[in-house]
Amino acid sequence: xxxxxALLLTLTVSALSFGQTFYSENMGTAPTNTAITAFTGWQNxxxxxYSGTGSVRNSAASTGYSGVSGLGNVYMxxxxxxxxxxxxxxxxxxxxxxxxxxxxxxxxxxxxxxxIVVEQSTNGGTSWTxxxxxxxxxxxxxxxxxxxxxxPSSATLSLRFTNPxxxxxxxxxxxxxxxxxxxxxxxxxxxxxxxCDAVTLAxxxxxxxxxxxxxxxxxxxxxxTSGTVGGD
Length: 232
Prior knowledge:
The protein has no helices and 20 strands. Strands 2, 3, 5, 6, 10, 13 and 15 form a seven-stranded antiparallel β-sheet that branches. Strands 4-9-14-11-12 form a five-stranded antiparallel β-sheet, with no helix packed on it. The protein has a two-stranded antiparallel ribbon with strand order 1-20. The protein is an all-beta fold. Helix content is 0%, strand content 41%.
């Protein structure tokens, strides 16, 4: 007599990344301490333009956070009474909603309590709007992620990172990214089906199909307690 079993499939779906990175800059690799305006090893070229009074360096390479690139970073020290800055022009975020645009960057300061000032402009730097974030205590490298709502949707976006110290604080930035991050998860399962592929004395094998909708707003990892995962 053939035994009939109920097929129980345990499936886990987790979001790997809630969005798409559309701009990323890891500062390349500087052969020596090179002025920002003289450096040619940027990840991005025209229409992106880099300027500022800092320099690109390989010393004190970024470390310790997810997605860290190491190698080059932008150094900003102090010159007399004014801190150095790093500016990025030519960014285009017009294809995305401001509520979904996320900014992230690696940041190091050698003075606890003094952190980089981040600003955005949509008029070529004629006026700047501060971007707020909560500083992390300490002097090592940290990854800051600023959620949607502060970066505007604009074809003429500029970002500026400034060392506010007028004394001895030294700062570095690395791994600057802009991502389109959906404010909601739209992944929805349909009704699963199972087809018996082979009936054997020891083991029956099945193909389980699980339809879904949505999921266009993120990247997902699908795992199961048995068998293999395939398809879309």
